[in-house]
Amino acid sequence: MWEYTEKVKEHFLNPKNVGTIENADGVGEVGSLACGDALTLYFTVDDKDQITDAKFQTFGCASAIASSSALTEMIKGKTLQEAAQITNDDIASYLGGLPKEKMHCSVLGRDALEKAIRNYRGESEKQQEGEIVCECFGVTDLEIQRAVWENNLQTIEDVTDYVKAGGGCGNCHDRIQEIIDEVLERETPAPKKAAMTNIQKIKRIEETLEREIQPALKKDGGDIELVDVDNQRVLVRLKGSCSSCQMSQVTLKHYVEEKLRELVTPELVVEEVK
Q1: Burial (Cβ within 10 Å: 0-12, 13-18, ≥19) of residue 128
Q2: How many domains is the chain partitioned into structurally?
Q3: Entry pTM
């Protein structure tokens, strides 16, 4: 039996802000009844982009209801920029913690918030769909990559706790383990390349972006621009569909950064600038 904090119990037994908002400025709908959890988040904003009201409708367990209720309380009064910084860990912390087996409920809230903000801003819903890894719950490799990267997940059980993948028939366990290994770089690292001058390093970064990375991003309507190189920091700007994609940080860290480390030097760190 899971142990719930008093705050989780309070938000489950007496949830705040249940309902819908007619003509809401932002709406985010995630999950599905088929997968066991579904959440729709609504909010309104004023002319200063401050969230003035938030409501939710959810289908799920006690943790899903409590996480949704907590989220609406957390975002009211915040600007959209402030709300966009809220993570699933923030939601769990607000509730005094969640059982690890229920962390996927906080992830559901985070995803609904991101989708509602994109809806308000009129940003395209088009994003990298990824490969379905868990057929039972419809979870993609990109969703698993993000969960592993953001929460430093180490095992298949951890992934199931955060995104439910692997919690059904178990046929996807081998693929989930492969993704964990890829993200955490458990494979033998490539040998370090010989030292190069700063000019040589910048030139090689430019060549790698142009030859290897930009063509792949452009296939999905995205692009990337080199802004600066500061020692081992590579500052880039995402463009096109990449600039608004919710998986952009996964793309930066687990595609762009890894490719530059492989073809230029292993010490490089890629950072996004707006």
Answers
A1: middle
A2: 3
A3: 0.61
